[in-house]
From TrEMBL:
PANTHER family: EXPANSIN-LIKE PROTEIN 7, PTHR31836. Gene3D superfamilies: RlpA-like domain. Residues 1-24 form the signal peptide. Residues 44-138 form the RlpA-like protein double-psi beta-barrel domain. The keyword Signal applies. Keywords: Signal. This is 5482_t:CDS:1. InterPro entries: Expansin_CellWall, RlpA-like_DPBB, RlpA-like_sf.
Amino acid sequence: MTKGRASVVIAIVLIVSMTTLLSSRNNNIFVDGSPVLAKRGKTFSGEATYYNPGLGSCGKNSANTDMVVAINKPQWGNPANPNKNKICGKKIRVKGPIGSVTAKLVDMCPECPYGNLDLSPSAFDKIAKRSAGRVRVTWKYL
Protein backbone atom coordinates (compact mmCIF):
# COMPACT_ATOMS: atom_id res chain seq x y z
CA MET A 1 0.00 0.00 0.00
CA THR A 2 1.34 3.44 -0.86
CA LYS A 3 1.84 6.15 1.73
CA GLY A 4 -0.99 8.25 0.27
CA ARG A 5 -3.43 5.33 0.21
CA ALA A 6 -2.57 4.41 3.83
CA SER A 7 -3.34 7.98 4.91
CA VAL A 8 -6.75 7.84 3.22
CA VAL A 9 -7.57 4.52 4.90
CA ILE A 10 -6.55 5.89 8.32
CA ALA A 11 -8.65 9.02 7.76
CA ILE A 12 -11.71 6.94 6.83
CA VAL A 13 -11.29 4.70 9.89
CA LEU A 14 -11.04 7.77 12.15
CA ILE A 15 -14.14 9.38 10.62
CA VAL A 16 -16.21 6.19 10.98
CA SER A 17 -15.00 5.71 14.57
CA MET A 18 -15.85 9.28 15.59
CA THR A 19 -19.26 9.13 13.89
CA THR A 20 -20.10 5.90 15.73
CA LEU A 21 -18.92 7.34 19.05
CA LEU A 22 -20.89 10.56 18.68
CA SER A 23 -24.09 8.86 17.52
CA SER A 24 -24.07 6.38 20.42
CA ARG A 25 -23.08 8.99 23.02
CA ASN A 26 -26.59 10.46 23.21
CA ASN A 27 -28.03 7.26 24.69
CA ASN A 28 -25.30 6.64 27.25
CA ILE A 29 -25.12 7.78 30.82
CA PHE A 30 -21.67 9.20 31.49
CA VAL A 31 -19.61 9.51 34.67
CA ASP A 32 -16.58 11.76 34.42
CA GLY A 33 -16.68 11.42 30.64
CA SER A 34 -16.75 7.61 30.61
CA PRO A 35 -19.83 5.49 29.86
CA VAL A 36 -21.19 3.76 32.96
CA LEU A 37 -21.96 0.32 31.58
CA ALA A 38 -25.49 1.48 31.04
CA LYS A 39 -27.63 2.65 28.20
CA ARG A 40 -30.99 4.30 28.60
CA GLY A 41 -33.72 1.81 27.87
CA LYS A 42 -31.45 -1.25 28.13
CA THR A 43 -32.85 -3.80 30.58
CA PHE A 44 -30.62 -5.20 33.31
CA SER A 45 -31.35 -8.13 35.58
CA GLY A 46 -30.16 -9.04 39.03
CA GLU A 47 -31.36 -9.29 42.58
CA ALA A 48 -32.85 -6.63 44.81
CA THR A 49 -32.66 -6.28 48.57
CA TYR A 50 -33.64 -3.43 50.86
CA TYR A 51 -31.73 -1.23 53.28
CA ASN A 52 -32.31 1.73 55.57
CA PRO A 53 -31.06 4.73 53.60
CA GLY A 54 -29.51 7.75 55.26
CA LEU A 55 -26.75 9.93 53.90
CA GLY A 56 -26.06 8.34 50.52
CA SER A 57 -23.06 8.38 48.22
CA CYS A 58 -24.67 11.22 46.26
CA GLY A 59 -24.43 13.45 49.35
CA LYS A 60 -28.18 13.59 50.09
CA ASN A 61 -30.19 12.23 53.01
CA SER A 62 -33.01 9.82 52.28
CA ALA A 63 -35.59 8.10 54.48
CA ASN A 64 -37.16 4.63 54.48
CA THR A 65 -40.33 6.18 53.01
CA ASP A 66 -38.54 7.67 49.98
CA MET A 67 -38.56 5.82 46.64
CA VAL A 68 -34.78 5.57 46.38
CA VAL A 69 -32.22 2.99 45.33
CA ALA A 70 -28.52 2.19 45.71
CA ILE A 71 -26.85 0.82 42.60
CA ASN A 72 -24.10 -1.79 42.58
CA LYS A 73 -20.45 -0.69 42.60
CA PRO A 74 -19.60 -1.91 39.05
CA GLN A 75 -22.41 0.18 37.53
CA TRP A 76 -21.74 3.12 39.85
CA GLY A 77 -18.42 3.70 38.13
CA ASN A 78 -15.43 5.39 39.69
CA PRO A 79 -16.10 9.12 39.76
CA ALA A 80 -13.46 11.41 41.25
CA ASN A 81 -16.14 12.92 43.52
CA PRO A 82 -19.02 10.51 44.36
CA ASN A 83 -21.30 13.43 45.31
CA LYS A 84 -21.06 14.66 41.71
CA ASN A 85 -21.60 11.30 40.02
CA LYS A 86 -23.70 11.95 36.90
CA ILE A 87 -26.02 9.04 37.73
CA CYS A 88 -27.01 10.66 41.03
CA GLY A 89 -30.68 11.57 40.84
CA LYS A 90 -31.32 9.47 37.71
CA LYS A 91 -34.52 7.46 37.80
CA ILE A 92 -34.80 3.76 37.13
CA ARG A 93 -37.80 1.47 36.73
CA VAL A 94 -37.54 -1.76 38.75
CA LYS A 95 -39.83 -4.76 38.12
CA GLY A 96 -40.12 -7.51 40.70
CA PRO A 97 -42.36 -10.48 41.53
CA ILE A 98 -45.44 -8.45 42.56
CA GLY A 99 -45.06 -5.10 40.84
CA SER A 100 -42.82 -2.28 39.74
CA VAL A 101 -41.54 1.02 41.08
CA THR A 102 -39.75 4.09 39.81
CA ALA A 103 -36.91 4.99 42.16
CA LYS A 104 -34.22 7.65 42.24
CA LEU A 105 -30.53 6.70 42.39
CA VAL A 106 -29.05 8.20 45.56
CA ASP A 107 -26.45 5.71 46.76
CA MET A 108 -23.95 3.00 45.89
CA CYS A 109 -24.05 -0.54 47.23
CA PRO A 110 -20.37 -1.58 47.59
CA GLU A 111 -21.05 -5.29 48.12
CA CYS A 112 -23.70 -5.65 45.41
CA PRO A 113 -22.60 -7.46 42.22
CA TYR A 114 -23.29 -6.12 38.72
CA GLY A 115 -27.04 -5.80 38.06
CA ASN A 116 -28.08 -5.87 41.72
CA LEU A 117 -29.86 -3.09 43.56
CA ASP A 118 -30.56 -2.14 47.17
CA LEU A 119 -33.91 -0.34 47.57
CA SER A 120 -35.46 1.64 50.38
CA PRO A 121 -38.08 -0.39 52.29
CA SER A 122 -40.94 1.59 50.71
CA ALA A 123 -39.61 1.01 47.19
CA PHE A 124 -39.01 -2.69 47.90
CA ASP A 125 -42.60 -3.06 49.15
CA LYS A 126 -43.82 -2.08 45.66
CA ILE A 127 -41.95 -4.94 43.97
CA ALA A 128 -42.01 -7.77 46.56
CA LYS A 129 -42.99 -8.80 50.05
CA ARG A 130 -40.36 -7.64 52.49
CA SER A 131 -40.32 -11.10 54.07
CA ALA A 132 -38.72 -12.38 50.82
CA GLY A 133 -35.60 -10.36 51.64
CA ARG A 134 -33.96 -10.89 48.23
CA VAL A 135 -35.79 -11.17 44.89
CA ARG A 136 -35.00 -11.39 41.18
CA VAL A 137 -35.64 -8.13 39.31
CA THR A 138 -35.23 -6.45 35.98
CA TRP A 139 -34.60 -2.73 35.73
CA LYS A 140 -33.73 0.05 33.32
CA TYR A 141 -32.79 3.71 33.30
CA LEU A 142 -35.61 6.09 32.40
